């Protein structure tokens, strides 16, 4: 019996209970039984990127991040936009992936949870940085799903069935053979 594919979920927000975290918790909740998901602890534990430190042995949080990416069949990102781009802490996380090969050719997508017309700067930066890493951006799985905070339950999971269905479709597209 084969091991179910694993999707690594990366939140670009450090805020507990952020809309971005809610999107990823909801993706976990709606994932089919044959798919495993892991929500990464996030960028807070990572040291500031320094190319001098991008050598063996890697700082433990960086080694753990790269191992998690390496073990995943695909990566799903949900990040806010700050000042027209990615939050610095999430850009730092991505910077740590450039020196490794774990994300190269790995299917990657993102969900933009911002209100309509917002978040485009973060998307553009994601596209640029992921291009440098060699990630395989799954365009059909990169979607805008604005989150109404009123539809987030006390468990941090979105109750809106339309959003839940869109996230199910994102997971399916992310793992679909290409």
From TrEMBL:
InterPro entries: Flavoprotein-like_sf, FMN_Rdtase-like_dom, NAD(P)H-dep_reductase. Pfam families: FMN_red. Residues 7-146 form the NADPH-dependent FMN reductase-like domain. Coiled coil: none annotated. It comes from the Bacteria. This is NAD(P)H-dependent FMN reductase. It comes from Streptomyces avidinii.
């Amino acid at each position: 019996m084969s091991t179910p594919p694993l999707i690594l979920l990366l939140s670009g927000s450090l805020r507990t209970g952020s809309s971005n975290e809610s999107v990823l918790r909801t993706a976990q909740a709606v994932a089919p039984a044959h798919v495993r998901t892991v929500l990464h602890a996030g960028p807070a534990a990572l040291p500031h990127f320094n190319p001098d430190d991008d050598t063996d042995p890697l700082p433990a949080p960086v080694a753990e991040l790269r191992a998690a990416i390496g073990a995943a069949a695909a990566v799903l990102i949900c990040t806010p936009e700050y000042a027209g781009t990615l939050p610095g802490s999430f850009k730092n996380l991505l910077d740590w992936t450039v020196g490794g090969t774990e994300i190269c050719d790995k299917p990657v997508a993102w969900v933009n949870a911002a209100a309509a017309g917002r978040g485009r700067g973060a998307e553009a930066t994601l596209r640029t940085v992921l291009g440098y890493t060699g990630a395989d951006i799954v365009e059909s799985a990169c979607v805008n799903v604005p989150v109404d905070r009123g539809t987030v339950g006390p468990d941090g999971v979105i109750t809106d069935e339309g959003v839940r269905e869109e996230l199910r479709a994102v997971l399916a597209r992310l793992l679909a053979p290409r």
